[in-house]
Amino acid sequence: MDFTLKTFIFYGFALLTIGSALAVVTLRNIVHTAFALMVTLFGVAGLYVFLQADFLAATQVIVYVGGILVLILFGVMMTSGRLEMRIHIERGQLLLGAGISIALLMLLLTVIANMPVWKNLTDDGRSLEPTTEQIGTMILQEKFLLPFEVVSVLLLVALIGAALISRKEVRD
Amino acid sequence: MVVPLISIILLAPLAAFTIFALFGLAKRSFPRQDILSTAAMLVALGCSLYLLNETSDPKPLTVEWLSLGSITLSMGFYLDSVTVIMLIVVTLVSSLVHIFSIGYMHGDPRYPRFFAFLSLFSFSMLFLVVSDNLLGIYIGWELVGLCSYLLIGFWFEKDSAANACKKAFLTTRVGDVGMFIGMMMLFKQFDTLSLYGTDGIFEAVRTLEAGQIAWLSAAGILIFCGAVGKSAQVPLHTWLPDAMEGPTPVSALIHAATMVAAGVYLVARMFPILTPSSSLVIAYVGGITAIVAATIAIVRFDIKRVLAYSTVSQLGFMMLALGAGSYVAGLFHLTTHAFFKALLFLGSGSVIHAFHAMHAHHDEEHADDNEDEHDNHSLVHEHGSEIPPDQDMRNMGGLRRKMPFTFFTMLIATLSISGVPFVFSGFWSKDAILGGVLERAMGWNSVHHYILFGVVLLAAGITAFYMFRLIFMTFFGEPRNQEMHDMAHESPWVMVVPLLILAALSLPVVNKWWFKEGYINKPYQAHVHEPTHAQLRPDSKTGDTNFGFSNFGISEAEAAEEEGGHDTEHADDAHHGHGPAHTIAMVLSIIVAGLGILLSWLFYHKRRFTAESVATTFRPVYTLFWNKYYFDEFYNGVLVALTVWKSRLFAKFDLSIIDGIVNGVATITRAIFAAFIGFFDNRVIDGIVNRVAKVIWSVGGRVRRIQTGAIQTYLFVVLGGIVLIILIFRVL
Amino acid sequence: MSLQHYLVISSILFTLGIFAVLTRKNAISILMGIELILNSCNLNFVAFSRFVEPAKNIVGRDDYLLDGQIIAIFGIVLAAAEAAVFLAIILAIYREFGSIRPDEVDTLKG
Lengths: 172, 732, 110
Hints:
The structure holds 3 protein chains of 3 kinds. Helix content of chain B is about 75%, strand content about 0%. Chain B contains 29 helices and 2 strands. In chain B, β1 and β2 (about 70-75) form a beta hairpin. Chain B is elongated, with a radius of gyration of 34 Å. In chain C, about 70% of the residues lie in helices and about 0% in strands. Chain C has a single domain, classed as Helix Hairpins, CATH 1.10.287. In chain C, α2 (about 25-50) runs antiparallel to α3 (about 65-95). Chain C is mainly α. The chains are: A mainly alpha, B mainly alpha, C mainly alpha. The interface between A and C is large, with 84 and 68 residues.
């Protein structure tokens, strides 16, 4: 395995992603975890770039980092007072959760390692065209038009629902 | 042609009734039910007349109806000359009664229903007549009984009518039970209820040995029981006079011409199975009925009851004829009697109708009377003391001029029934019976038949006496009740025309044509001919000297030849041999009829003697006649009382013993079982239930803690489960 | 870089997300764990669409390589909607219970 710059950068992104994800699940301060999550999301975006998904990587950054993460931070601000910034953890629960998680990870890794079809599927090195135009065509004109519309409606409903749920009760 | 015609004959009256019933469902009535029913009967009459020539080759027309294992019951028609004659008699009399009723029943609140019932009755009777098997006959038989119940009780507001219809129904049921047992005996023996055809009962009877017919006699007598009930023979005759509570056209139709004729018809149909012993029983019952009813009729004052007892008496004549083997004579008398008795009833109806203005008044009184005797639980209506004034002959008299048509026609009928010779049909038929009985007596040298001949001769004389008594009291002399006399009037034409037609039918010329030569064949009769066949032969040819009716015997002789295969020499002997019997019978019958009429004339017209003085002289006899031989009293005092006593006994048995047992069982149960079961219930059952509940309660209390309400606990379980499942199924 | 690299990374992300959901005592932290899980799924979609070639003759076209990416876009949209609803629910719970600790919200406790 040749250790090229591209490989180096890939492993860098992989480590960044996993490490920050670890931070998300282990840090006690909720604001810290939020920022760790931001790093994780960036790392995933970088991995998307390695997968020739340029448009998706941009979307990941814009929507996740710019939208969802800000939303989460708002939630933190609105619900947690200064004293509750620290996340409370029970030891027994932590151990049990760790056990189940590790068992699950072992299981997944076993499956991945033993799946013959997936072995040796390496990057063929071909570079795709910029995907934005194709994705736009496919979503707006071709086979994904209907799912796109359905998802739009879903998003709208979710937003209206969220507004309805989160507003204060108006007693009449 | 036969089947569709019979179908029309049956279906026309049924359709008339069905239309009434369908309209009844809608709580309405067909606007002209009277026209409808009458038209239906006229159609049936037309078809019946057409069938007159269709009887040359009688064979049953059957369809399989019901399969019981290996036995198949069939329903079907059988059309021979007797059937056709009955069809014509029934449809003709029924049509005329329908027409008469249009006038007589006019204004009755249940006018349409009356006609519907008449139609249903006609259908039942016709069905009975054309059936080729005992089951069909029985169905028609019971339907006729039902219709008579409905029609006798037509004015059911009157207690007397309600009682009379119940009495009629129950009394005839007594006979029907016997008839049914007889049918079942035949069914058991022959595995069929069909009468005709190769596997019918009559064919089977031929093969019986002489020693095997004891049960056949019993079956014959039992079936005759049904006829005793329906044809009002002694001792089941008491319902018929009471049945005069029905409207008079009903009396004419049911109790003179057709329904009571059903009994005679049944005996005639079953003629082939009648053995000598059962024949003798039938003859005796008929003879006794003839004389008993005739003597009762002498002392009645109710015009309809005189006719009712006269009917009973005449039915006795017919039964006697059939019992004495004079098959043709019996049917002949049935036919002629149907016409002149219907005429007499309709004529009396006309008279009653003339007094109808009094009727309403009478009904009120009547209702009052009946309330008093309401406590009397007897089924028997005591009528002797209370005759409706418009039916009481003591209120009549001198109607001859007021109601000329009615008088004239009733006079013809009376002459006919009295046996006035030569121009009236009743003479010929009655003479045929008398001659037949005497022939049997002489032929068999049988004391029984000599006695019966004497009895029936006396009855014939008495018949002439009381019938002319009726005529003299009603139409001659001075009016006894001036008020009612003034109100009387001749009836409208719809009532007079049927009277005229029936009067014409009472003349022999009219009757002659269906009793033409060989039209009716005397059927084979089980073993009657065996011992005395040679003597029977003389019996066969009835008097040639009697114009028009000489030919019954020929057919009998022919029938005998077919059966026995005897040569014609015997027939010639027979021809010579029969003469005396019929001549003697005829002379005697003319003498007694003349005597009866003469006495009646002396008593009731000339007033040479008064009935009262005779009654005083023969007080016990008079009382016996007046009280109708105490039959009703006997039934009331013995049978009804016995039934009531038995019912009370059973009631007491029920109350004390059955109830005692039940109560005792209940007490024991309560005392012992209930205590034990209560203990068992409380301790064992409840214990089990409670214990189960407790266990479930405690388990639930523990299991409840699993439900922490914390989402993460659930997630732990879910994910742990997933891991386990994958481990088990994927890795292991 | 083979497919398995990406699968391992996404498995680790997924497991960490599960771990967060199971152990954190704060509703917003749980939401973050869910976001990790969703990201791992998206990464899987994209990786599979990059490396595994479906049978071309099914559709006979060349654009199948982008299907996974578009599904991932839909996944992101779903994540956004989910985050919005989740936060709204958290706000409502906070108003009702004064806390967003999941073990304190236990009115369904038996």
